[in-house]
């Protein structure tokens, strides 16, 4: 993720997350959101479902 694309205050908090999996999940969401900001009418449901499934751990 390019730091110039995301507010530095948000990144400061994300960078403090110790759990690598959670930190990467948040980074992926931020990257995804940033990439869709220019769309007139973005629809994210399927993309969010895929992202959540990727990070969902059913073994815990």
Describe this structure in words.
The chain is an all-alpha fold and 60 residues long. It has one domain. 60% of the residues lie in helices and 0% in strands. The protein is built from three helices and no strands. The protein has helices at residues 8-15, 20-36, 45-55. The longest helix is centred in the middle third of the chain and has 17 residues, at 20-36. It is flat and about 35 Å long. The model has no long low-confidence stretch (mean pLDDT 76).
Short description:
This protein has 60 residues and is an all-alpha fold. 60% of the residues lie in helices and 0% in strands.
Write the layout of secondary structure elements.
Elements: H1 8-15, H2 20-36, H3 45-55
Helix pairs in contact: 2-3
Q: Oligomeric state of the chains?
A: single chain
Q: What percent of residues are in strands? A: under 5%
H and E string: HHH
Fraction of residues in H or I helices: 55-70%
Main sheet overview: none
Main attributes of the structure:
60% helix, 60 residues
């Amino acid at each position: 993720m390019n730091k110039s694309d995301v507010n530095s205050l948000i990144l400061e908090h994300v960078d403090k997350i110790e759990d690598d999996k959670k930190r990467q999940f948040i980074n992926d969401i931020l990257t995804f959101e940033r990439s869709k900001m220019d769309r007139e009418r973005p629809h994210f449901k399927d993309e969010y479902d895929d992202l959540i499934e990727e990070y969902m751990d059913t073994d815990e």
